Amino acid sequence: MKTEILHNFTSRSRAATADEAQRGKFRSAMDFLIAKRAAQFPDPTEWAELRESGQQIRQRALAYLPKLLVQFEQKAQQNGMTVHWAETPLEANQIIHGILQRQQVRTLIKGKSMVSEEIELNQYLQAHSIQALESDMGEFIVQMADEKPSHIIMPAIHKSKQEIAALFAAEIDDTPYTEDVDELIQIGRQALRQQFFNADAGLSGVNFAIAETGTLCLVENEGNGRLSTSCPRVHIAITGIEKMLENLADLPTLLTLLTRSATGQPITTYVNLISGPRRADEQDGPEEVHIVLLDNGRSQAYADVQLRQTLQCIRCGACMNHCPVYTRIGGHAYGTTYPGPIGSIISPHLLGLAETRDLPSASTLCGACGDVCPVKIPIPELLLRLRVENVTRAGTKDHPAVMRGQGAKYRLSEKLAWQAWSLLNTTPALYLASRRSAAGLRHLIPSVKAWTQARVMPKIAPQSLHELIKAHQEQKS
Amino acid sequence: MHSNSSISLFGTCVVDLFFPQAGMSALKILEREGIQVNYPQAQSCCGQPAYTSGYSDEARRVALAQIAAFPGEDPIVVLSGSCAGMMKHHYPTLFQGMPEEEIVRQFSKRIIEFTAYLLEVLNIELHDLGPAESVALHTSCTARREMGTLQNGRELLRRLDKIDLKTHDHESECCGFGGTFSVRHPDISAAMVQDKTAALRQCGASKVISADCGCLLNITGALQKQQAHPENKTAFAGLHIAELIWQRTGGKSQ
Fold first, then answer.
1. Residues 6+ away with beta carbon under 8 Å from A145
2. What are A376-430's pLDDT values in tens digits?
3. Where does the sequence pass through the membrane (chain A) (predicted)?
4. Residue A390: strand, helix, or coil
5. Which pLDDT does position A441 carry in this prediction?
6. Residue B83 near residue B10, CB atoms below 8 Å
């Protein structure tokens, strides 16, 4: 099922671009976020210095990642947390399910966690008769509509207030239809409030894990993250292994880069630093805190120095907000947990290139994503690298195996076409002779219709620049 | 004052095939400024289509052919920001750690984009002889982000007295060309160019100027397709900046 969905990027992007209403929604939402972010970085020098620091902090953390993970485990254990390691989504689901079973948990309340989406935790738990309830307002809406998030920061950005009004009126008891946004938020909050106290366990994501102190940092605006991690008697946090920071002192720089880039806020309403379960003299907090560290392809990206930069990501979403492709097709069309430019460079490691073969080319390489990345991930460069891996089989001369699904788009016919193109453009006589038929271009175009659906076919000029200049120079001399 | 200067011109394959008048305009502007222009007949394409499609070996072969076609040390003026970016910034990356790296670096240092040459080297004066006209400007993403030539088009148009530059909605956004992207993801590319052309049509200009013929191929292709529809009665043209400058400063229009 999943494979089929992922392979169908072309048909999903066709449907998405044909949906004028949705395109309008994404356009205005992204414009809003772009403006909010821009207002937070009015000084280009400060921005340049800050992101340089952010990049250095993330690169340093990744350089020491194996050591930091061990250090984090020790510190977290000293703080009373239990640390679990998961290589695959299935392992992560089994670990979480195991904890919930031991604690006889029937309902789980969730703060926002994209890694839990990545492992499809809700579906796994549902199949094992445990109810997982999303408490982030956007996730709550998406779950109620039986959909997936379309954006990593704003999961329900694809929904209009009218759609949410209709959804709430239909799904929440005694709820009148209202399009008043404040009222809708109050309705959602009321529906959720008691759930924090009813739930036996809470699950959250992690924005940063600090190795020095064994601390989990969690940012949010709604307070649901704090309630999910402090009300229930068990708290489970799940994160990718790349979220490590070396020191607590690294945190302020990344926090300000994250919140300003993501939502245009100087700081979020809540910044949670979680250092373990409730202590003997404390009144609040869970009795148990578990942390699940997930690999799921990240160590594959880590092994290659260039691709490792993918793991610098702090999940602010600015690259998708600024991406003209994401703006046209929205998050669902990508068919992956992480959409947009960052999704196109991380998903091939999580799912393999065979499953995500259309994503590296789903960019004009305009560079907007790289420009706004707060930790300076060279996203266009990494897209280019994945395009090479996509068409090059592993194990050929000079080309080692670097990733799952490598060579997924390799076709002998395409390779030969490019070789012919290269011959044409390295042999002047051939280039001059063949230009009239534009033979060099024609067999590289999958179908003429691909170009002409929106444009006329360009006419080849009667005389080329080569010929015109030659005539011009002869006339002069 | 520039009579001793000589440059080599890289026309780009798109100009060679589809917009040769842009190349001729550039040539004549440069010659009028007293520059001796060398146009190696052995030049073809910068190699970008293969490079962005993941075919690095093929791109390298084509790159080396261009390097061989441009011996000497004179500046190489390139008629497109995108191809200039390929030759200036991506060639050294492509040959990193290879025996040819140093030769490639020396070649890449000679690359200068056409509008940058007009402004930074020639500081060209333009005497606008044309009628008052409103135009829009499309800056290619490469010019904007990779070549730092974002303001050049604006500055050159400012030096044409009777040109009224109109800004269009989402001016800084990509037109949706992206080379082979336009045919690999035709629906997304079409959506982008439709938004771009709609914004252009609404800004009050009657033509769009660009220093990048890749973008122009896409934008003018869409504009012409739309003109076939009865509701788009007004023609909206697209022109390389060299052609506009040549036309308005004494040269004849094609």
1. A159, A163, A167
2. 999 999 999 999 999 999 877 778 899 999 999 999 999 999 999 999 999 998 8
3. none
4. helix
5. 55
6. yes
What is the DSSP pairing of strand A288-294 with strand A244-245?
A: unpaired
Task: Determine the Cα angle at B15 with ends B200 and B217, to 5°.
Answer: 30
Number of structural domains found in chain A? 2
Do A293 and A425 have their domain in common? no
Q: What does the block give as tokens for B125?
A: 């004066």
Among A390, A426, A455, whose Cβ lies nearest the Cβ of B222? A455
ipTM: 0.95
- Give yes or no: residues A421 and A288 share one domain: no
Size of interface A-B (CB pairs under 8 A): 195
3-class DSSP state of A382 = helix
Chain B contact for A2 (CB, 8 A cutoff)? no
- Residues A288 and A416 occupy one common structural domain: no
- For the record, the structure tokens of B191 come out as 């959506």
CA angle A321, A322, A326 (to 5 degrees): 65
Residue A456 has pLDDT above 90, yes or no: yes
Answer for the pair B26, B52: CB distance below 8 angstroms, yes or no. Answer: no
pLDDT at A459 over 60: yes
Which CATH architecture fits B133-249?
Answer: 3-Layer(aba) Sandwich (3.40)
Count of other CB atoms within 10 angstroms of residue A462: 9
Which of B31, B41, B185 is most worth mutating to test chain A (most A CB atoms within 10 A of its CB)?
B185
Whether the Cβ atoms of residue A255 and residue A50 lie closer than 8 Å to each other: no
Range of the domain at A467: 412-476
Q: Which residue of B has its CA nearest to A333?
A: B188
> Comparing C-alpha atoms, which of B82, B70, B131 is closest to residue B253?
B131
How many CB atoms lie under 10 A from the CB of residue B130?
16
Asked whether A132 and A110 are in contact (CB, 8 A), the reply is yes
| Both structure tokens of A64 | 């020491």
Q: Residue A213: phi, psi to the nearest 5? A: -120, -5
Question: Is pTM, for the whole model, over 0.80?
Answer: yes
- CA of B252 to nearest chain A CA: how many angstroms apart? 15
Note the pLDDT of residue A332: 96
CATH number at residue A205: 3.40.50.10420
Check CB contact under 8 Å for B51 and A365: no
Model pLDDT, residue A437 = 59
Picking from B161, B252, B148, B164, the residue whose alpha carbon sits closest to that of residue B209 is B164
What pLDDT, in 10s, does the model give residues B11-24?
A: 999 999 999 999 99
Contacts of A446 in chain B (CB under 8 A): 183-184
In sequence order, the β-bridge partners of residue A293 are A85, A239
For residue A254, is it within any domain? Answer: yes
Residue B110 pLDDT exceeds 80: yes
> Are the beta carbons of A455 and B221 separated by less than 8 Å?
yes
pLDDT for residue A436: 60
The answer to whether residue A424 neighbours chain B at the CB level (below 8 Å) is yes
The reply to whether A61 and A198 lie within a common domain is yes
Mean pLDDT of B199-226: 95
Helix/strand/coil (H/E/C) assignment for every residue in chain B: CCCCCEEEEECCHHHHHHCHHHHHHHHHHHHHCCCEEECCCCCCCCCHHHHHCCCHHHHHHHHHHHHHHCCCCCCEEECCHHHHHHHHHHHHHHCCCCCCHHHHHHHHHCEEEHHHHHHHHCCCCCCCCCCCEEEEEECCHHHHHCCCCCCHHHHHHHCCCCEEEECCCCCCCCCCCCCCHHHHCHHHHHHHHHHHHHHHHHCCCCEEEECCHHHHHHHHHHHHHHHCCCCCCCCCEEEEHHHHHHHHCCCCCC
